[in-house]
Amino acid sequence: MNLGISGKTALITASSNGIGKSIAYTLAQEGVNVVLFARTKTKLENLTREIEAKYGVKAYAFNGDMLNENDVSQLALFLKDTFNGPDILVLNTPRPPNPLRRTVEETQSERWHEAYHNQLWSSIQLSNHVLPLMLHKGWGRIIAITSASVKQPMPHHSLSTVFRAGMTAYIKHLANEIGEKGITANCVAPALIDNSHRTGAAAYSEAQMQARKKMSPLGRIGTQEELSGVVGFLASMQAGYITGSTIMVDGGMSGSLL
Ligand SMILES: NC(=O)c1ccc[n+]([C@@H]2O[C@H](COP(=O)([O-])OP(=O)(O)OC[C@H]3O[C@@H](n4cnc5c(N)ncnc54)[C@H](OP(=O)(O)O)[C@@H]3O)[C@@H](O)[C@H]2O)c1
Q: Residues lining ligand 1, CB < 6 A?
């Protein structure tokens, strides 16, 4: 299927690694020029070189911190000057604080503040600066990566669930307000997606990996490509009548009918 987005420009946040990086590959494969935003300059520069060589699109590395308003406003200036704004905005975020804990043990205000900033404010701040550049274009796609926890809260994930639910509400409000400008806004809610690229304290143990597999009726972990393919579809022309929705990519983990 031709997604009809070749030649468009996408900003993908938190994209030097993992899911964000996979989304960058998927969109570039569809002929989309990509702007990658994360903190580590060298990783971004290597990735943009790889993407340009592999897919023949333009790829730009913009290093900065999503939580730093000055970095975000510099990014917005770059997007305005270079493309008169992006067509596609993918709001991927940093992870919640480590280690994961039971809700009754989540008593430290620093962890709640960190989770709020990482999971919710980072994306809203980004959107505050970048969305105004998209409104005049008559077409656009906003896709936020949240978590399947918004539908079925996972144990030890309250720091994520609480603020991802807030992000889901934010996207729904946006969808209602900007639909007439030709812009759709949706969430993709993952769970059990391969995170074997993670290192250090963020890496899952073998026992945790096995336990995650059992949470899906498919009996396996999802690939990053299975997630980023859904993002690619939501960015497509064909997805033009989907807005204000959340698409689950959780291997069937969520127990509800709808
Ligand atoms: N795997 C799953 O099943 C699953 C399920 C639900 C939700 N999620 C969520 O999906 C998101 C991506 O997961 P992942 O496994 O790909 O995470 P990851 O490997 O830790 O990647 C996170 C990315 O965010 C960037 N980043 C971190 N802090 C940043 C900041 N302050 N400003 C800008 N960029 C920043 C990192 O690059 P730099 O270090 O270079 O900045 C990196 O590129 C996370 O929020 C995760 O919680 C995943």
A: 14-20, 38-40, 43, 65-67, 92-96, 145, 147, 190-193, 195, 197-198
